[in-house]
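During the no-cost extension, the postdoctoral fellow (Dr. R.K.) reprocessed legacy sequence entries with the updated structure-token encoder. One reprocessed record is reproduced below for audit purposes.
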Amino acid sequence: MKPTIAIVGRPNVGKSTLFNQMVGSRISIVEDTPGVTRDRIYAQGEWLGRTFTLIDTGGIEPYSKDVILEQMRLQAEIAIETADVIIFMVNVRDGLTAADSDVAAMLQKSGKPIVLVCNKVDTPGEPPMELYEFYNLGLGDPMPVSSVHKMGFGDVLDECVKHFPPETEEEESDSIRVAVVGKPNAGKSSLINRILGENRVIVSDVAGTTRDAIDSEYERDGQKYTLIDTAGIRRRSKVEDAVERYSVIRSYGAIERCDVCLVLIDAVTGITEQDTKIAGYAHDEGRASIIVVNKWDAVEKDDRTMNAFLKDIRDKLGFMSYAPVLFISALTGQRVNKIFDSIALVSGQHSMRVQTGVLNDVLADAVLRVQPPSDKGKRLKLYYMTQASVKPPTFIVFVNDKELAHFSYMRYIENQLRESFGLTATPVRLIVRERKKENE
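Re-encoded structure tokens follow.
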């Protein structure tokens, strides 16, 4: 899993502004009113070659009895528990407050690395005298930043990266890691229990029963599997319980560490916006995926029902057109065994390697069949292609001018690769790189 940085502090010290500047877009609402950020918000970032998850939190009011503020405090506590590194933000204009001291005491109990950041130091040069009183928190050197003027971010991120856990090589295992993901109550735990043949995971009709990702080892026909059951992912507006919110990042973490993703759809409720977000995350992470429509036994059917549902899937999850679709019932066991045939199919394609010579024969043939596009008298030239990695199969194609590599033509090349090598059930990544020839 990626390392996690949580930005915490009392309300209105500039956490959301810092968060937005670090991830390069306005994801958090920024207002000059304390308590605007009521939920944790996540984004992916990269610094010094390390990718990480950044969590923005609501402001901590340690002893507030206000219900919303109390929820925000819980949220921040959960973010702290999840984080590898904590950015503790204070505000030089307000000076050291009692609330800052209370939050600092709470953070010290966590035992996590803490980077003390002093915001609103808006003039470059010698730091203001007010900065030095923050040494009283006992958290080391306060680092001056200006969220508004984007000053001091690099130093803060440098310090955070120092505290990241060391990068670990993915352990080569003969076990296929399968994450079962979906919105609450889609039947994830029921499916795993059906596969395992025992009630290893608590099953109930209360959405959000599974609070954390749970791994179960399983073997079938000589192949080992690690089944990862995840807490249901809900739309943020519908999530009110703090512990369930904590489960969301763990669910995304399970997607990050799996080989194959079973995206569970509830046949009774149909495909929801949240289903598209979960599938979209798996797609963006390049995971081999299978769309599993559960509770098919509970749907009234005629000879057109399945085709209509398939069309709905292809319409709403069009970005995942490569993913096989299965209609099952975890309750009755209907077609559950078919899942393993699909896992073998997508897993094999997901880790396929193609020899460079064969790859370039296919590329040359594709270019002969359909000529590359040209613009203002200049034609796209595709020099050669190489496979960079697997899981998913990732290919680099070297061209004379990236601007000429139109999306539609590169999609044609991708389709030729899929057809030639049988890559029909896996995401495929095509990276275009420019390589100038000396005589050009």
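The chain has three domains: 4-162, 175-349, 356-434. Confidence is low (pLDDT under 50) at residues 26-40, 206-213, 232-247. The remaining legacy entries will be reprocessed before the final report is submitted.
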